[in-house]
Amino acid sequence: MTLDAAMFRRVLGGFASGVTVVTTRTGADQPVGLTVSSFASLSLAPPLVSFNVALSSNRHDPLVAAPAFCVNILAADQAEVSNRFARVGGEDPFANTPWHAGPEGQPVLEGALGWLVCRRWACYAGGDHSILVGEVVALDTTEQAPLLYFRGRYGAFVPAS
Q: Residue 52, class by beta-carbon neighbours within 10 Å (0-12 exposed, 13-18 middle, 19+ buried)?
């Protein structure tokens, strides 16, 4: 059975997800970041998380090679931050995004709902993506609302009554 690629994307776009920006530093100590909606928790013992990055991304190689990374969970008011880190080429997204170095030196974005600093645990091939798994070594959170992504648009969480 051959799947229609447009229909595949349409169906998956119906799965609402949180929005993260995964950050690291290159060997030359340059910050690198990428908007990621494929973030997931994986294990409690040990504490593992995962995300996927396209092989075609210009940020693939630095993220895969990094010994550690930070998953920044974006808050509801950070849609523009997500857009900055999703763009290919152009302006450096760190230029207009306040951040500080986390416990392992990875960029932690100011205003994020939460963050998890991870040491690379494993990297697996996944079709046209790499699947990165990290062991969480530091984390923090706030009481902000999350930024959500659904059918190509940003939104906010509204609790059911």
A: middle
Identify the H or E element spanning 118.
Answer: strand 114-126
The answer to whether residue 160 sits within a structural domain is no
Q: What CATH number is given to the structural domain containing 74?
A: 2.30.110.10
Phi, psi of 5 (to 5 degrees): -60, -40
pLDDT tens across 36-79, in order?
A: 989 999 999 999 999 999 999 999 999 999 999 999 999 999 99
Average pLDDT, the chain: 94
Overall number of domains in the chain? 1
Q: Is residue 56 part of a domain?
A: yes
Q: Does pTM top 0.90 for this prediction? A: yes
